[in-house]
Amino acid sequence: MTATSWSLLEQAHTALRASTAELGDADWAAKTPCEQWNVAQVLRHAAGDQRAYAAAITGDGGPEENPFDPSVDAPGDPKDLLESAVGVSARAFATVPTDAQAVPTPLPQGPMTAEFAVGAAALDAAVHAWDIAVATGRPSPLPAELAERLLPVATAIAEPLRGFAYAPALDPRPADDATAALLRHLGRDPEWTR
Hints:
The chain contains 6 helices and no strands. By secondary structure, the chain is an all-alpha fold. The protein has one domain: Four Helix Bundle (Hemerythrin (Met), subunit A), CATH 1.20.120.450. Helix 1 (7-20) packs parallel to helix 4 (114-135) and helix 5 packs parallel to helix 6. The protein starts with 6 loop residues before the first helix and ends in a 9-residue tail after the last helix. The model has no long low-confidence stretch (mean pLDDT 94).
C-alpha cells in the first residue's frame, strides 16, 4: 500500500504544535474555552484523541489515559507527549487510501470515508490548538482557510457528540469568517478571552 499524504491533518498538527511550542510552567493551570479543563488537560486530551484515531486504524497504541478524564497536571515532557501522539496519528493515516469508504474511527458514528475520518482527527487537533492558544494569550493558530476546510466535517459529525465533546452550537453572526463560524458551530465563542 502506498503511503498517503493528508495535508489537512498536517495543517492541524502544525497548528497544535504551534499553540504548545512556547508553553511554560505558568500556562498549565490556565482556564480554557473547554470550561471544565485547564491547558494541561486540553493538551492531554488532544494527544489522547490523536492516539485514539490511530488505534482505531491500527488496533494498537491507544491513549495512555482516558482522553475525557485527563489529568490536571502538566505533562512531564509536553513536547514528547504531543510529538508522539501526532506522529502515531500521521503514520496511521498515511496507510489510509484516499478512496477508502470505511475507515475505523473512535467516534460513535464508527467507520467513515477517508476524507471524513481524516477531517475528524484534524478537526480535533485544530480546535484544541485554538483552545490552548487563546487560553494562554497567544495568536490563533486556526486560519480561516483551515477552518473552511474543517467546517463540512464539523457539520457532519458534531451532533452525536454534543454534550460530551462539543457544546450546543452558538448562533452565527453576519460578520463571522470561517474560523468564527466553525468555532460557533462547535459551541465555542470566537471572542473568548481568559
